Amino acid sequence: MSAYTVDLDWLKRVREDVIDPDQRIIDPHHHLWAKTVAGSSNVRRHRLYNYLLENFWEDTSSGHNVTDSIYIECSEFFWSSQEEHFNPVGETEHIKGLAQLSQKNTTKTSISGIIGHADLLLGKDVKEVLERHIDIGGNLFKGIRHAGSWDPSDKINNSHHNPPQDMYLMKEFGEGIKCLSAKGLVFEAWQYHHQLTQVAHLAKKNPDLLIVLDHFSGPLGVGPYANKKEQVFENWKKDIKELSQYKNVFAKLGGLAMPINGLGFEAKPNPPSSEHFMSLQRQFYLTTINFFGPERCMFESNFPVDKYSVSYHVLWNSFKNLVKDFSETEKDQLFYKTASHVYNIS
Length: 346
Fold this sequence. Notes:
Shape: globular
Distance between the termini: 37 Å
Oligomer: single chain
Order of helices and strands: HEHEHEHEHEHEHEHHEHH
Number of domains: 1
CATH topology: TIM Barrel
Structural class: alpha/beta
Radius of gyration: 19 Å
Strand order of the largest sheet: 1-2-3-4-5-6-7-8
CATH superfamily: Metal-dependent hydrolases
Mean pLDDT: 95
């Protein structure tokens, strides 16, 4: 159950002029959800605040040129049918309606793709769930995220899908992945840093599957990892280098403002400036860009989850500061062209 909330007054304590406001951006990772109403049925995650289309638009209208976005599943808007394996299709259906609404307003960010959820542990039987997603989502439906984030520590929360240990290595999951690959859909991979070798296993076994690595694979910085940041980075660096050899894997650059990463932005009297925000995590960004190349990397917001620690305009300023000395071609790759290629957005 999520305990995150957003203190808008706290975030407003840091304001910055927007850097390079004309740079096109495709934000490839955001969520939408409604505040949980007391007594609601079919509540999968407890939400303390609304983050609806108008809230997302308020963020994307803060000065940066965010033309398009990709909605990523977060266990919201499920159906309540007795055929439970089909219920995640409700999320695709709901977001499709919002996407169509967003596309009618040419002055706002358009939701141009949907990553939904299906239980890939269904194995070959997941095919009919994928087909339902495709039938309802149409061209907006881009793929599936079935998160595998798992850690043995009781101080670390496992993924919202409550995965078993080593889920990516299970036979049934492998069969489900084959169905996903056969339909030309994207697999969005979300797990912790010590599970990177499992992503490499999937990439090796499925060379035709397009895999997107979320949030640098979640380098942990709390619980048993709180005092092991250098060790975590070195282990992560070794594994991310191995993963980068698989050309079917693309990397999202972002998502390190969550409390599990242990950077502590949310606990400070004031939110971070763009310079301070990037100073504590720069090595993850530059290492990934170095190994994958800009053509396989894309900046992401992970909003509203990262909004717990940083505002939208400051976040994207931090990305622009990071690559200020990059070529225009490299910047375009990182800010929109890689995402355009992966999610087929014009």
